[in-house]
Amino acid sequence: VGLLTLFSMLKLWNEAFWKPASYSAVGTGAKPRLILRDWLFSIAFLAAITILIGLGAGPAFDVALQAGEQLMDPSIYIRAVMGGAG
Fold first, then answer.
1. Contacts of 76 (CB under 8 A, 6+ apart)
2. Calpha distance 82→79 (Å, rounded)
3. Into how many domains does the chain fold?
4. Of 50-54, 67-71, 75-79, 81-85, the least confident
5. What is the pLDDT of residue 68?
6. Which residue has the higher pLDDT, 48 or 79?
7. pLDDT at residue 37, as a whole number
8. Which residues contact 29 (CB under 8 A, 6 or more apart)?
9. Could you tell me the end-to-end alpha-carbon distance of the chain, in angstroms, rounded to an integer?
10. Residue range 31-38: average pLDDT?
11. Domain interval for residue 40
């Protein structure tokens, strides 16, 4: 199933992004302009997010570890719900 999914995604990717653009559908036949500033902003934004995710992995892991420990020990939840009676 994974191989068939990969094949179908590759087929879609090739059709959507690697196929030469059809400019006759635009109406005037003019090629669309690439706005370099927008591209650079998008690239810089995604690069910054990637770096922040990498630097923030430690604290995020600590939070996930604490949440996992609380899930494995239901006594904290029981005390919170029962008001300390459990």
1. 70
2. 5
3. 1
4. 81-85
5. 93
6. 48
7. 74
8. 23
9. 48
10. 66
11. 2-82
Residue type, 66: Q
**CA–CA separation, 72 and 59 (whole Å):** 20
In Å, how far are 25, 45, 71 from 86, measured between CA atoms? 69, 49, 17
H runs (alpha helix) in the chain: 2-13, 36-55, 57-72, 75-82
pLDDT at position 44 over 70: yes
> Is residue 32 a contact partner of residue 26, using CB atoms and an 8 Å limit?
yes
pTM: 0.38
AA identity, residue 61: F
Of 32, 13, 14, 7, nearest to 22 by C-alpha is: 32
| Cα–Cα distance for residue pair 74/51, rounded to 1 Å | 35
Residue 1's pLDDT is 79
